[in-house]
TrEMBL record:
<dbReference type="InterPro" id="IPR016024">
    <property type="entry name" value="ARM-type_fold"/>
</dbReference>
<protein>
    <recommendedName>
        <fullName>HEAT repeat domain-containing protein</fullName>
    </recommendedName>
</protein>
<feature type="compositionally biased region" description="Polar residues">
    <location>
        <begin position="109"/>
        <end position="122"/>
    </location>
</feature>
<dbReference type="InterPro" id="IPR011989">
    <property type="entry name" value="ARM-like"/>
</dbReference>
<feature type="region of interest" description="Disordered">
    <location>
        <begin position="102"/>
        <end position="122"/>
    </location>
</feature>
Length: 122
């Protein structure tokens, strides 16, 4: 059964989301929808899409987080910056966000970049 925009919004609507569980239940079909939401006008949904991206496997975060990282609302950029900590392939994006005009974005991006640089390889 195809994943619809409404299906993804329903996952993001609750105030408290179990992100690891939500990530396990969404298919790859949800990735472009999450990217669209992360770039969209609703900062609440956009920040949740960015937060969820941090828990998605594969390259999903590489599709979603760059869009969230350019959102005009700093809350969304903070969510993107925090989610980068789970994805070593996005270290360059963390470094870019570490120069953001918003202090909160800079702090989370710096924290994510530090975490990625100090991770021990598996």
């Amino acid at each position: 059964m195809p994943v619809t925009h409404a299906d993804v919004v329903n996952v993001l609507q609750p105030d408290e989301i179990d992100y690891p569980n939500a990530a396990r239940h969404l298919s790859a079909e949800a990735v472009p929808i999450l990217a669209e939401i992360a770039a969209g006008p609703d900062p609440g949904l956009a920040s949740k899409a960015a937060s969820l991206a941090g828990f998605l496997p594969g390259n999903a975060a590489s599709v979603i987080l760059p869009k969230a990282a350019t959102h005009p609302n700093p809350v969304v950029r903070i969510a993107a910056a925090a989610s980068i900590a789970h994805h070593a392939e996005l270290l360059e994006l963390a470094d870019h966000l570490a120069k953001d005009p918003d202090e909160g974005v800079r702090r989370w991006a710096s924290s994510s970049a530090h975490a990625l640089r100090t991770q021990t390889p598996n």
